[in-house]
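Case study 2.
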Amino acid sequence: MDLGLSGKVVIVTGGSGGIGQGLLLAFAREGAHVISASRDAATGKGIVRLAEERQLAGTIVPVATDVTDQASVDAMLATTHERFGPVDVLINNAGGVWRQSAFEDLDAETRRWEIALNIDGVVNTTLAVAPDLLSRGKGSVINISSNSSLLGEAAYNVVHYGSAKGFVNSFSKTLAWEWGPKGVRVNSIAPGWIVPHRNDDVAPGSFWNRLAFGTPEGMQQALDAGQLPNMSQVPIKRLGRPEDIANLALFLASDVSSYITGQLISVSGGVYMP
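Prediction:
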């Protein structure tokens, strides 16, 4: 199916992570002009080379961006306008956990970091693209939330992070109600455990490297050996991959989903079923 995304201008924040890379490559495959807004521009350049090797129809342009800094976001948007024109799709993918701990051990640094990235970053970028979307009366905003905002067990030792993603859920729904009559749709995706195909696919600052979760390759080996914890709770017996998020984002970005707004969809193999 042709989703009609060729030539669309798409901003993806957090493009250097595993889900981010999946988003960048998927939209480039559809022929979109994609801005990778990430603090790690070096990883973004590697993804550009990968897209060129695959001869994808679209364009990926990495722009070093700190979404917690409004001035940095505004500079990224200016680059977007200069290269491609007004924005059609915003995917707020940047987010993350600073550190794991019991809630009673939560420290001020963790709180500030997680609020700045998971909440302020989403607000900053959405405010920045609002004139592009509202002035033309069309467009799509897709906010990447987390199953940690939906399931208590998914937020074990990351209660504050899960709660910050709860803001993203409410923000998406309330903004969808306000912007729907103005022609702009807002939806959110809540990933479960999404695993890159290779550890080399993620940036050095990714939680895969910071929080010692193991490697993507190791998780696949554990699954194959029947030793991956909690897999018994997942109805679909495989690892979630970045393309699972990207495929839904493509749909929500396109006019094929033009009657869908304000929705929260979990991509988690059925772990969360509302």
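The mean pLDDT is 93.
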